[in-house]
Specification:
Structural class: mainly alpha
Distance between the termini: 54 Å
Helix content: 40-55%
Mean pLDDT: 82
Radius of gyration: 21 Å
Strand content: under 5%
Largest sheet: none
Number of helices: 5
Number of strands: 0
Order of helices and strands: HHHHH
Length: 123
């Protein structure tokens, strides 16, 4: 009788090992609300992210219209790394862009950039 519980545990462990490569080790993390607020503050800060200079963002005052409105960002950028790369240096995808390379020119540090990306993906 003692071998049955061990057999069940072994079966569950084998099943988990089999589906891990398909599903990934852990679910995608979601930024904490406080981190989203920090990201929003950076994005709205006229001396830092300054996203509102060019983009309309829900809740933003005096938005610009030279860039696309920032909405449905998770649908537009299902791969977080692509959005981060765009903000890091938009000239890679479009050499004629007017968007500043926020990471490349150290306008935002890595932590600030990650907070802004998390915030934008929440829109």
């Amino acid at each position: 009788m003692k071998s049955r519980p061990n057999l069940l545990i072994t079966c569950v462990a084998l099943m988990a090992a089999a589906i891990t490569p398909v599903l990934g080790d852990t679910p995608k993390s979601v930024a904490a609300p406080s981190d989203l607020e920090r990201g929003k503050a950076i994005a709205f800060n006229r001396n830092k992210g300054n996203c509102l200079a060019c983009h309309a963002i829900d809740g933003g005052e005096l938005p610009g219209n030279s860039g696309p409105p920032l909405l449905q960002m998770a649908l537009r950028f299902p791969d977080r790394a692509v959005l981060r790369a765009q903000i890091w240096d938009a000239t890679v995808r479009n050499p004629n862009t007017v968007m500043p390379p926020y990471g490349k020119h150290k306008i935002l540090n890595n932590d600030e950039l990650d907070l802004v990306v998390d915030y934008l993906l929440s829109l």
